[in-house]
Design goal:
By secondary structure, the protein is of the alpha/beta class. It has one domain: Alpha/Beta hydrolase fold, catalytic domain (Rossmann fold, 3-Layer(aba) Sandwich). It is 35% helix and 19% strand. The strands form two sheets. Strands 2-1-3-4-8-9 form a six-stranded parallel β-sheet, sandwiched between helices. A three-stranded antiparallel β-sheet has the order 5-6-7. A hairpin with a 2-residue loop joins strand 5 and strand 6. Helix 2 packs across helix 3. The longest helix has 12 residues. The radius of gyration is 16 Å and the shape is globular. The two termini are 19 Å apart. The model has no long low-confidence stretch (mean pLDDT 97).
């Protein structure tokens, strides 16, 4: 049987750049991986770009792969859930502090399933049909376990996010592949109570003492968890 390829799907406002440190850890373990850039987070993207466009990007990344592990972070959880039925050779879904809406629900519905305000809510600014993050507030929301330098570098690379992507609803039903939820206990973006609800929709649950972005703050621990 072919060794699985880990397809890494970032969350809102991010890009494939955010997986660099985790990628180095996976490389050291001989793990094959590839990272997707979601259209809804690309600079200067059109406001009409939404979940379907992001799903298409993930499916394109999986073409020709015999065995796939889909890894979704935050909003990326919605994307891999919607993409899963179209991935041939899917072995496993891994969610990192991720949203898993039910069929007919959107990412916004999932994150609001528990009524609690987070540091990320405080950092979000609406600009027409796009969402941006306040550069002064984003580090404390997303990167509170990171070094100041790492957090600063990450914030400089954040992009806009389309409102459409958060509003589009899940249409695909669950697949039979194993699902694993990696909860982040120090998260200030997706509240741990929201994560607990999302995790209840998975087969297995792991917990990291991490902020919302373990791929930056704890890449070794995250790599260990992905390969457990």
């Amino acid at each position: 049987m072919a060794q699985p390829v880990f397809v890494l799907v970032h969350g809102a406002w991010h890009g494939s750049w955010c997986w660099r440190d985790l990628g180095l850890e996976l490389d050291a373990r001989g793990v094959t991986w590839r990272a997707v850039d979601l259209p809804s987070s690309k600079p200067e993207t059109q406001p009409t770009v939404g979940l379907a466009d992001d799903v298409s990007a993930v499916l394109d990344a999986c073409v020709g792969l015999e065995s796939v592990v889909l890894v979704g972070h935050s909003y990326g959880g919605t994307v891999i859930t919607e993409a899963a039925p179209g991935v041939a050779g899917l072995e496993c879904l891994i969610y990192i502090a991720a949203l898993i809406p039910l069929v007919g629900e959107s990412t916004t519905d999932a994150v609001q399933s528990v009524k609690v305000r987070t540091r990320l809510d405080d950092a979000i600014r609406v600009q027409g049909q796009l969402l941006v993050l306040d550069e002064q507030l984003a580090p404390n929301a997303l990167y509170n376990d990171c070094t100041k330098d790492d957090a600063s570098r990450a914030v400089k690379q954040l992009t806009t996010q389309t409102l459409q992507s958060f509003r589009n609803v899940r249409t695909q039903h669950s697949v039979e592949a194993t699902s694993v939820y990696i909860a982040c206990a120090n998260d200030r973006a997706v509240d741990p109570d929201v994560q607990a609800l999302m995790a209840s929709r998975c087969n297995e649950i792991l917990t990291l003492k991490s902020d919302h972005s373990p791929f930056l703050s704890h890449p070794k621990l995250l790599a260990d968890a992905l390969l457990t």
